């Protein structure tokens, strides 16, 4: 496992972005990259662990702990899932409009443009930029 810095910049279209920086671990698996980190109190998800499985076609986001979910981000794909919290569960859907990944020496950049629908309510479009930098 390799130590990494994970910078996540998430924003709704036409709004100011929210940026959070995490320290985590990266592991190269057979055909994909696995990145794990603990969420922070800044995101309101203290006690939640996030795992990203990233490859050229998709990113799968797993959350465990106080929140449990699995979201699949793949271009032109709509993923319906259950978001489980301590206070209950709700149905959600993520529809990915764009997905791209660029890898350079020691850095991976993931770009996702998506819409998140919550409990049947159509959501707004969002953009997520994830920069993963290997630490020496």
Draw up the topology in text.
Blueprint: E1 2-12, E2 18-28, E3 33-38, E4 48-54, E5 58-65, E6 67-74, E7 77-85, E8 88-104, E9 107-118, E10 125-134
Antiparallel strand pairs: 1-2, 1-10, 2-3, 3-4, 4-5, 5-6, 6-7, 7-8, 8-9, 9-10
Q: What string, H for helix and E for strand, traces the elements in order?
A: EEEEEEEEEE
Q: Which CATH class? A: Mainly Beta
The CATH architecture is Beta Barrel
Stated plainly, the CATH topology is called: Lipocalin
* Strand element count: 10
Structural class by SSE content: mainly beta
Distance between the first and last residues' Cα: 12 Å
Number of helices: 0
Description of the structure:
- The protein is mainly beta.
- The chain has a single domain (2-134), classed as Calycin beta-barrel core domain (Lipocalin), CATH 2.40.128.20.
- Helices cover 0% and strands 73% of the residues.
- Strand 2 and strand 3 (33-38) form a beta hairpin.
Task: Supply database-style keywords.
0% helix, Lipocalin, single chain, mainly beta
Q: Briefly, what is this?
A:
The protein has no helices and 10 strands.
């Amino acid at each position: 496992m390799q130590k990494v810095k994970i910078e996540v910049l998430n924003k709704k279209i036409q709004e100011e972005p929210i940026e959070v920086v995490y320290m985590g671990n990266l592991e190269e698996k057979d055909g994909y990259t696995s990145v794990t980190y603990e969420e922070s109190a800044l995101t309101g998800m203290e006690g939640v662990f996030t795992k990203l499985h990233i490859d050229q076609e998709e990113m799968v986001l797993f959350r465990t702990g106080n929140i449990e979910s699995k979201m699949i981000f793949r271009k032109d794909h709509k993923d319906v899932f259950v978001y489980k919290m301590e206070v209950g569960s709700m149905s959600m859907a993520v529809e990915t409009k764009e997905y791209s990944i660029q890898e350079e020496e020691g850095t991976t950049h993931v770009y996702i443009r998506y819409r998140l629908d919550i409990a049947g309510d159509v959501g707004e479009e969002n953009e997520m930029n994830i920069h993963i930098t290997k630490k020496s």
